[in-house]
Write a structure and sequence with these properties.
The chain is of the alpha/beta class and 264 residues long. The chain has helices spanning 20-25, 46-52, 65-79, 99-107, 131-148, 164-169, 181-191, 214-235, 252-263, and strands spanning 7-13, 34-39, 56-59, 84-87, 113-117, 160-163, 196-200.
Length: 264
């Protein structure tokens, strides 16, 4: 807990059995109140390892995609009355020890969302990031900063922290269940006026770390371009998009209310 605010770490998992224990071991227990894992129908021992570690575990009966996994992560975190939620990949690519620093930036009230940036310290390539991914990252980030009027060092990190207000406000159910969910969510933060900060985060690339293929990277990149253009046209009042509309039916709180109604 930080400044009286409950901190929950969520782990969107898929085939993370080999790296999960190392990741969890470095999560700072002095500031984190709960750690929950959502398994997206893995075919390895991810669920067994997670339960042995004493995590709260939620299992998708079928694969719902990375975005679908996050929707469950954030829904269950809100169900636990989290004030601050940190999304950490369980593949040990990002440094878990930064959870406290990221959560503190939100607990201070200065930021609503915080990103663990691989670019700020200029060591991404030294950490093993493939050169084509680095080039795509820089090009897409420059394009988005231009269209969104922002100044982030990168939009594509998988290490993020959000306040409860962000998760309760954004129409996250309107987002994709695929990888572009990440980018849609940050674009929504911009559209809804939330303050986003960054912290430098060194990363590691190794065989057990999850990584999407070149083809999936291209698909993701096209989705990023589409999201950015939608935002700009929406900002110019040239179109409407459910991604940026304040629609209560698309909020995670609606899913929680519906679940409560079903249980009663």
């Amino acid at each position: 807990m930080l400044h009286g605010q409950k901190v929950v770490v969520v782990l969107p998992a898929y085939k993370a059995g080999k790296t999960l224990e190392k990741t969890v071991a470095e999560i700072p227990q002095d500031t984190v109140d709960e750690v929950l894992l959502v398994d997206d129908h893995s075919t390895d021992d991810t669920v067994e390892v997670a339960r042995q570690l004493g995590l709260k575990v939620f299992v998708h009966p079928e694969n719902r995609g990375y975005g679908g996994n996050q929707k469950t992560c954030y829904t269950e975190a809100l169900r636990l009355d989290a004030d601050i939620v940190v999304m950490l990949h369980p593949d040990y690519q990002y440094d878990p020890r930064l959870v406290s620093a990221m959560a503190a930036m939100i607990a201070s009230g200065i930021y609503d969302a915080v990103l663990g940036s691989r670019i700020l310290d200029a060591r991404a390539l030294h950490g093993g990031m493939p050169k084509y991914k680095y080039i795509f990252n820089r090009m897409l980030t420059a394009f988005q900063n231009l269209l969104l009027g922002s100044k982030l060092s990168e939009f594509h990190t998988g290490y993020r922290a959000f306040s409860k207000q962000v998760l309760e406000t954004l129409p996250l159910l309107a987002n994709s269940d695929d990888f572009v969910f990440d980018n849609q969510m940050l674009t929504q933060c911009k559209a809804f006026g939330f303050n986003m900060g960054e912290i430098s985060c060194p990363t590691k690339y190794f065989p057990e770390a999850s990584s999407i293929s070149f083809g999936r990277s291209v698909t993701y990149g096209l989705g990023v371009l589409k999201t950015s253009l939608k935002y700009r046209f929406w900002k110019w009042n040239m179109c409407r998009s459910p991604l940026f509309e304040d629609d209560p039916a698309q909020r995670l709180t609606t899913r929680l209310e519906n679940d409560s109604a079903d249980d009663s």
